[in-house]
Every structure is written in C-alpha cells, then in structure tokens.
Design a protein that fits this description.
Blueprint: H1 8-15, H2 25-58, H3 72-92, H4 98-130, H5 137-140, E1 143-146, H6 150-158, E2 164-167, H7 169-172, H8 177-193, E3 200-203, E4 205-207, E5 210-211, H9 224-233, H10 237-258, E6 262-263, H11 285-288, H12 294-309, E7 314-320, E8 335-337, H13 341-346, H14 350-355, E9 361-364, E10 367-369, H15 382-392, E11 398-401, H16 407-410, H17 414-424, E12 429-431, H18 437-450, H19 456-470, E13 486-487, E14 493-494, E15 502-503, E16 509-510
Parallel strand pairs: 1-2, 1-12, 2-3, 3-6, 6-7, 7-9, 8-10, 9-11
Antiparallel strand pairs: 4-5, 13-14, 15-16
C-alpha cells in the first residue's frame, strides 16, 4: 500500500520497522523522522527555486524585480549555480534519482543562460535608443518617464527621446525645494539649448493618501474633506466652489515653485458603494475619491482644476473610464468594466465630461470597457480613444496612460502595450515606477516608426496638445467637449452641436449626455 508521505518508508527502514521497541529505538525514530523531513524540504525547495529562477530568467527586466535590477542577472546566475551544486550533492548522496538530477540541471543551466541573454538584449536595446537619430524626436515626445537621477534622464531630455518626466518620492526625498527646482530648470535648459519644447513635468500630489511631493511640500488633506466641511457648515454650493478653487490655488503655487506643470489629479472616479477592489494595495479609490455624487465631484474637480491652472499647472482627471465599479486592483490584475455604456454616460462619466479642460489632461486607466471594446484596456483602445473621447466627446486635451508598468497591461508585454497605445492615438505614454522599461518601449516604437506603422499625423497632433499645456499662461480656457451650451468666460453661453447617438465598436448605442452642467 502506498504510504501517505514520501519519507514514511525511510522512517520505517531507519527505525528497523520492528514491533518491539529496543533501547534507544524511540530516539532513533525521532532522528530518522527529522532527517526525512529535512530531506523532503530540501527537495521541495530545490524544485521551487529552480522553477522561480526559470520564470525570472525569462524576463529579468520585469518591474517586479526593479528593486534588484542592478544585480538581477548576477543573482539569477548565482542562485542557479548554488542550487545546481546542492542538486549534484544530493544525487551523490543518493537522495534524488538520476532523472530528477538531469531535469534540474538542464533547467538551472537554462535559467542562467537565459538571464544572461535577456540582460544582454536589454543592454543592446538601451544603447540603440540612446544612439537613435534625430528622427526619434518625432515619437519620443509621446513618452513620459520616471527617473532615479539627473544623469539618467538628462540624455533622454536633451536628445528629444522623451517629452515629459514624472517626479515621485525618490526624486524629492531628503531634498529641499531649491535643489529640486534647480534640477528641473537644468533639464529645461538642456531642452531649450537643443531647440526642443519644454518638458511636461508631472507629479502625483492629490492630497490625502497620495502626496508624493510631501515633504518638502506640505501634505494637504484629501479633497473629499472639503465636501465634508461643506456638509457640516451648510455654507452652500458657492462656498464649496470657492474652497475647492482656493485648495487648487494653494497646491498649484507649491507645485509651480518646484517647476511642475502637470498634476496627476484630481481623482474623479466616484466613491464605490462597498469596500472597493479585493487585494487592493494601491488603487484605494474609496479613500481617494471626492464623493459618490457625480455632480458634486464635477463641481469640486472643476474648481480645483481652475485653481491649479491659475498658477500654470494643468490638472489631470483620472482614471477614465472610472474605477468605482472595478473589482480588482489594476496595479496587479487585468480588470473589466461590464456596466452598460448608457449607465456610465449618465452617471460615472459626468465628472469627466464637465470638469475637463483643453489645457489639461485625462488619464486612461487599464480597464477593459467591454461594451465598447472587449479586447483592449481603455489605455490601448481605439474605440475608447478615437471613437468615444475624440470623435463623440470632441475632447482635444491631452490623453495620458496610467503607468504601463502596471500588471493589468504589462502582462501583455511592454512592446505590445506601447504599440497598442500609440496606435490607438494616446498622446503620452507614462512609464513611471520602473524607468528602465522606457528603453524597451522606445526601442519597439522606433522599430515600428522605421517600418511606417505609426501615424505622423498622430505625432503632430499630440505635440500640439502638449504645447497647449506647457505654454499655457494661466488663463482659464474652458471647454473641451462638444455637447450642450456651456457658459463662456464672459458669462454668455456658447452653442455647440447637440450630441448624437453613436454606434460603438461592439454595435452598442452610446448615449450622449445632453444635460447642462450645473453652474456651481
């Protein structure tokens, strides 16, 4: 009869398997059990480590390994060598058979070789990007990157290989405002000397749980606190608008002092009814959302964006098509939004429609909008970018992806996600968490450009939209979406064509909103 544990037979053999306990038999049995458990654990560990090394070797430049990026290939090779050594020792001690020894040996050698090959390939891609001709500027302006040091990002900015930079905690930690501003000014000076337009300089300074520039900037409370204060004081809608604008002005002044011209905020996803996504480590929309009321969100976001813009800082509404109904964290998992477009248009999309600016941006989330495009996340979907936002809404502001390092799109492969987003007509591709992914993405983009697969017209249009933001002088320029009559800056209404129904990608009718935004 088969024993329930692989080491039970060895225990019986070691103990003599005799019904009569001899002196010391109990102690011997205990040692035999311990030895068998250790042997079984060692065998399982070798198998697990081998499998993990093989997976890691297939993509050693994966964002999950960013923390050990500088030594990842050496680590994989070293661990493979160590595991191979223990495997051969176990075989000589007759603890594992010939077949298992051979299989583990082949896989460990393969992991070591594969990691070296992939590491070498990445180094070659990086060198090719840095040596790219001047024509690379035509596509380079559509990339925004995070960075670890001035020396790392300066060549990219000076050669026109990027159009923007993203600052996060690693760029401001233990530094004062003057030092950070000097670094950004130096990058902008390099651009000017090279005859290139100014960089977009972006940061996540939402307030509340997301304040990546604090310190040295102040750490403001979440914008939602303004709504709570208004509810308690019962000051009315006008007072809430003034408070939201003042909040935006204060944050805009601080960001402008650093040299930042685009804030990735406000969050206009509606507050979820329940607890939000499961295994939610980063999205945390319930803590970041302004309110569950779409009209209230639009009002606060619009006033906040006006406050930012008064200091020359653009606002970014995020994360279209909305995360309120999404059940997973897109930092890790693919997500689908199955709500009918008609429902979203009448509710979730109200803040995006009524708070957007031509000199601001909308961030596209990595969520599949199944009613329009069941195959592609919104950030790479032509049906969302071109058909819905550009054609139906008439939106002519900047469209920027959420970080392409996120699991929801990285799983498609960095090259695939890059080319899909560019082909869809997205203006700016964000690669913030892991800056090294830029070299892989840009290498793919340059290859596609040389093959004639990218539209020169799209490149020109995105450059125009970026210039509208970076050259903005602080004068509010409202309206970016066609639709109902909207108040102009002089208080008179401006007519626009009434939105008509449209047949979407999947044959569904897209209901266009025809309601007037509330004046407050």
């Amino acid at each position: 009869m088969r024993t329930p544990f692989p080491f039970q037979g060895r225990v019986a053999q070691a103990a003599g398997a005799h019904p009569t306990l001899r002196p010391g038999a109990g102690r011997g049995t205990a040692f035999a059990i311990l030895a068998s458990v250790v042997a079984f654990g060692a065998r399982s560990t070798r198998r697990a480590v081998t499998a993990l090394l093989l997976v890691a070797a297939c993509d050693p430049i994966n964002p999950w390994l960013f923390a050990v990026r500088d030594h990842v290939v050496m680590l994989i090779v070293g661990l493979a060598a160590a595991t191979l050594s223990t495997t051969l020792y176990a075989h000589r001690a007759q603890r594992i058979g010939r077949f298992e020894t051979s299989a583990l040996t082949v896989m460990l050698i393969a992991a070591a070789l594969l990691s070296v090959i992939q590491g070498t390939r990445f180094a070659q891609q990086r060198e090719a990007v840095l040596a790219a001709p001047a024509g690379a500027r035509a596509i380079g302006h559509r990339f925004m990157v995070g960075y670890r040091s001035f020396e790392e990002v300066a060549p990219l900015a000076e050669r026109g290989l990027i159009g923007g930079i993203y600052l996060t905690r690693r760029n401001v930690r233990d530094r004062d405002i003057a030092a950070i501003r000097a670094e950004i000014d130096a990058l902008q000076t390099l651009r000017a000397r090279a005859g290139l337009p100014p960089l977009l300089v972006a940061a996540d300074q939402e307030g509340g749980p997301v304040v990546h520039m604090s310190p040295p900037l102040s750490a403001p409370p979440a914008i939602a606190t303004l709504v709570a204060e208004a509810a308690v004081s019962d000051d009315g809608a006008h007072a809430l608008t003034l408070r939201a604008r003042a909040y935006g002005e204060a944050k805009g002044a601080e960001l402008a002092a650093l040299g930042i011209n685009l804030n990735f905020g406000p969050v206009v996803d509606l507050r979820p009814d329940g607890r939000g996504p499961t295994l939610d480590t980063h999205t945390l929309i319930r803590r970041r959302a302004i309110s569950a009321d779409p009209t209230l969100v639009a009002t606060v976001a619009r006033a906040y964006a006006d406050g930012l813009h008064s200091h020359g800082v653009g606002a970014t509404l995020k994360h279209f098509p909305g995360l309120a109904r999404v059940t997973v964290d897109t930092h890790h998992f693919p997500a689908r939004l199955d709500t009918p477009v008609t429902t979203l248009a009448d509710h979730d999309w109200h803040p995006f429609r009524h708070a957007a600016r031509a000199d601001g941006a909308i961030m596209l989330g990595h969520v599949i909008l199944t009613d329009l495009d069941p195959e592609h996340p919104a950030s790479t979907s032509p049906a969302v970018v071109r058909t819905l936002l550009r054609e139906e809404w008439g939106y002519d502001g900047l469209l920027v992806t959420d970080d392409l390092n996120m699991g929801a799109v990285y799983r498609l492969g960095p090259c695939h996600a890059t080319l899909a987003a560019l082909a869809a007509g997205v203006d700016v591709l964000l690669l913030s968490y892991d800056p090294d992914q830029f070299h892989r993405a840009m290498h793919c983009a340059l290859t596609a450009q040389r093959a004639g697969h990218l539209s020169p017209e799209e490149n020109t249009a995105s450059a125009r939209r970026m210039a509208a933001l970076t050259q903005s002088n602080g004068t509010p320029r409202r309206i970016v979406t066609r639709g109902p009559s909207t108040p102009s800056s002089t208080g008179q209404s401006r007519s626009a064509p009434a939105p008509a129904a449209h047949t979407g990608h999947a044959g569904h009718r897209i209901a266009r909103r025809t309601t007037q935004p509330r004046p407050w």
